[in-house]
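Hey everyone, long-time lurker, first post.

I ran two proteins through the pipeline my lab uses and got sequence/structure pairs for each. Pasting them in order. The first:
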Amino acid sequence: MTKHRRLTAAEEAAIQKRIAADPDAPEASDEELAQARPFADVFPALAESIKRSRGRPRIAAPKQAVSLRIDPATLAKFQNSTHEWRQVMTAALDAADAAFIERLKHERGIPVVADISRLGKIETRERGARIVQGPREARARKNPPR
């Protein structure tokens, strides 16, 4: 934190003199201050439009921020796949159906969502990512029905 020195009486007087001489910002008198009303009372429509337009518009289903503990190798696969790796990870999680998740839970004995190498080819587009070939399609191609 920067320490400021106190103004001398002469410096303060010079500043006050410049404030009083400014024609664009006259100091309000006590009578003017007594007559002052809140902005919202004087301009209600404008005040309401300003209040409504602040910030980003609300969306129906906002994304949730979560904290996950992910194996470093799995995270590296996602991060090295594209600069849009978060969208790719979201697509991979969306593509993991309930049966796939339950099978992984049963096989490994721990709650596991997905392994990127088992999801198939992931295609990125300008607005998001989608899985082109999922685990079922990959198995069907490797082991065609007899």
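...and the second, right after it:
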Amino acid sequence: MNKKTVLLFLSLIILISSVFLLILYINRSIFSSITSKFPGNFNSNQPTPFQPFIPSVTPTPEGYFIQSSLMPVSEIRSPLGQVNILLLGSDYRPESGYRTDVILLVSILTKEQKVRLISFPRDLFIEIPGYGKERINTTQAKGGFSLTNASFEYNFGIHLDHYLMTNLSGFQAIVDTLGGIEINASENLYDRCDLPYAHGGYCSVGPGAYHLDGPLALWYVRSRSTTSDFDRLRRAQEVLEGLFHKLITWDAISRAPDLYDLFINSVETDLSLNDISALLPLASKIALEPDRVERYSIDESMVSPTTNLNTGGSVLSPDYNAIWQVIQQAIYTP
């Protein structure tokens, strides 16, 4: 690829994925091993984590119906030209399995030229076909993208066209290679910080415009003492937008080969270069009109803390009526 082609490839991919390279540093504990025995219906074309493979999912630009779901969607067709891409952040370790502790849906409305981001909490306790109730962050490891898609269709009435999963590599280096990024912080974050430019052991960012280098960007969404998982997802979305806007500048073109080398070995996806190229005109439009990106999330008001009786672990029970209000607006309203 020439430099311009590499940059175009990176612009859209990092627009919808680099947030996970960032957030995954939040939870660095090694998870217990996950079984390698996948159910027969979901065992085909299973990739090795974080290596690209041949796409097996076809977008549905004509819209679709979902017949079996906890959501009232059986007679509602999805918007024409919608492409749903699920971004997954995994704390994969050799011999330790993985869970996808960052889950963000990017819904692209190609006709309306809009992008909608929907964050899902990792501890959401949902019905997984063939398994019963489990955390949402276990579906990909249990049965790959097919099981994840089946779970989203049944629980949320959302059909997934593609996915992209990242591991724990490269985020700081990507930000620093770009010369840092600019974000618009909606709130102030003041928390413990061990960076050289900390004041009294604390760092502060926002509200408003702020320049972040790699270490500070990592701290911005990693900090947990004064915030919650829900707040960290908001900050990650801000960093995601900052990365995208930096990547589309001419300055980033000269760094494209370095970025490509840092990025390509950290991603597993079924998106092809043709899939990405088809969406690039929208990426350019979003760069000029940031209001075309809308943010949504499954937040604290839509869940109830409870306990998984099988494991004793803390989970979040979904309020499906409340969640439907978000999904109806974000997914089914053009």
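Reply from user beta_strand_b:
Welcome! Quick read of the second one: The chain has two domains: 3-169+263-330, 178-243. The radius of gyration is 19 Å.
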